[in-house]
Structures are given as C-alpha cells and as structure tokens.
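Researcher: We're teaching a course module on how sequence relates to structure. For the next exercise, students receive a sequence and then see the predicted structure as tokens, so they can try to spot secondary structure elements on their own. Here is the exercise chain.
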Amino acid sequence: MKRCVKCLLPAAVPGADLNAAGVCRPCRDYRPADLGRFETVRVLREKDLQQALQSCRGVGDYDCLVPLSGGKDSVYLIHRLKVDYGLRVLAHTTDIDIGEVAWANIRRAVDKLDVEHLVYRPPMRFYRDLFRWLLMNQEARGAVHTISYVYAPLFEGNALKVAVEKRIPLVLAGYSPGQPIADRMEYEFPPEAIAQVDWTPPELAAAGQFTDEDLARFWNPAHYPPGTRFPRYIAPYHAWKYDQDAIMKKVVELGLIASAKNASPVFSNYPINWLLMYSDLKNLGYNPYAPEFAALIREGKASRRYWGLMAKVVDFITLNKIYLGRHVARHMAWLGLSDADLRITRSSRRDWPESVYQSRATNVLLRPISEEA
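Model: And here is the predicted structure for the students to work with:
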C-alpha cells in the first residue's frame, strides 16, 4: 500500500492525490503558519471550557459525567477533571463489546481515582441485530463510519439520559481532535442537536427490522417534558493542547493504566473494530482510521515513527485474522456473516439536519477552521 512519505496517509484515501515525490495533497496544502488560526480558535474554546468547568459546580448530583471507554483519553480526562479541577465526576460506561484490556484499564482507573462509576449493559440481541444489519447495508464511507455513527449516538445518548436524570450540567467526552467527524461535532455538540433533534437513524426506522423499543434506545428530546434542562456535551481535548504520545505516557506514569501496551488505542479499542477495519480494507482499500492519525502526525500531535510501524502491523494482522485480528473471525461468527455479506449498499448521508448545520455556522466556538475569517 502506497502512503504519503510525510504523514503516512494511504494513497487510496479519497483526496490523497500523492505526487511524484510521494507527498499527499493535505501535506502539500498544509501551512504551519495556519497554526496561528487554529490556536486562536483553540484559545476561545479553552476559555469557554474553563467557564463551563467553573459554573458546573454544585448544580446537580455530580458536576460532570464522563463516558469511560477504557482508552487513554477518557481515563486521563477523568484524572484532569477530578485532580486538577476538583470536580465531582461520575464515570459512565455503556458495555457494548468492551474488550479485556479496556476493562482492565477501567477497573484500575476507577479504583485509583476513587470516582463513582455506572455501567449500563443493554441486551446483546439488539446489538447483534444492529451490527449485522449495518454491516450488510453499509453506506459509501464504509463499515467504520456506518457502525460508529450509529453506535456512538447510542452511548452518547445513554450518557445524556443519565445526565438529565441526575441533573448533571456537563457531559465531557474524551474525543481527540478529529473525533468525531466535524459535521457531527467540533468541540461541542450543537445545543439544537441535543434539545431539538431525534437521533434515531432514519435508515433503521425504514428497515422494518427493529421494534419501537429498539428505536427508542436512541436519544430523542421529545421524550422529555417541556422545560427540561439538557446538559452541554463538550470534548475538552478540542480545547486543550493535545499530544497523543504524552497522554499515553502520562496515564502509565500516574498508574492509571498498567502499561504502555494497555495505553495504546490498538489494544484498548473495541474488539468489533477489527471486523470494521477488515471490511473497509477489503471494500475501500485502506484503513479508515488512517486519515485521523495522518492528520495528527501532520500537526505534530502523534509520532510518525510509531504509526509508521503500527499501521503496517495493524493492517497485516487484520487482513490475516491473526493475533488481535482474530476478533475479525470471532465477530463474523457471532454475527453469522461471511465476506460476501460485508456490503456497501447506500450513499452517504449527513449526520444532522440542515437546520443544525446552519446553527453551527453562527457559533465561533463550533465553526470549522476553514470558515474562520
């Protein structure tokens, strides 16, 4: 697989456009001088975040809720909020296919930080049916996007439901810069997306295979009475300076995660992600996480040397279903799928209604960098 010699972006990624020297278009277009504009927006977001962290104190049963996946970012986020800011943190985990490494990280971090922790485990029948249908009816951007942007709203919605119930004013997620896609969230979910939008994916409602009870699992503000106060949903790493390698080292130094191996997203990620990567490598010709890590490398937030080796290893073990790639075969058996079932059948769709896009454009804290004056 050809990759950009600078950021490792695979040539197969749409828009990569490697030139004769092997440099991708995003690297050719990248201007370090633009970092000043990024920094201006980051500082605005950091100021807003500081105010939010001050004003959340004593409002509800807890000051904030953090979705805890067992990865380095959510673990370190809880540390910062409790230790550096002195907040009353409620950790919340939706147990959908969380792996052994992530569970070990969760137990260790919760004990070390002495925070309260809620776990919600939905019926696996629903998630088996959901994953199976989505993998057999993928949209054009592939399996990771198709699954993630149905799966993520489920645990985001679970967090919002708990926050409303316990009058928690802030949900603070450990999304790194570049997560999720900018059309869904930059720094903060648009308030309109929480207070006005039904998150039930229309393709599931139209499929005819999911019950009203299944569809009701998605966030829908219409389920709450008028006057309900909804929390803000913010990604602090979109406001703070972010260094992936530094966080991986810090969580081990603090004893929050047992080892550098456990701190690596390769080992702590959801096991089903191996099947999603396998499907995308087959259907798209590249690992769907590559653009995210290429952007971090380009901006100096991740190690090119580390990911230069790891990217090749991950792709190899995924395609050959060995080592951690064994999860590919395990999940295909669980879902009753074959290679031929992993199909792209739908075009891409926007993640929020047009009204939410328009509302985002009026807010400097949420506006994409490309739109800044």
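Model: If you want an answer key for the exercise: The radius of gyration is 20 Å. Residues 38-262 form a domain with the Rossmann fold fold (CATH 3.40.50.620).
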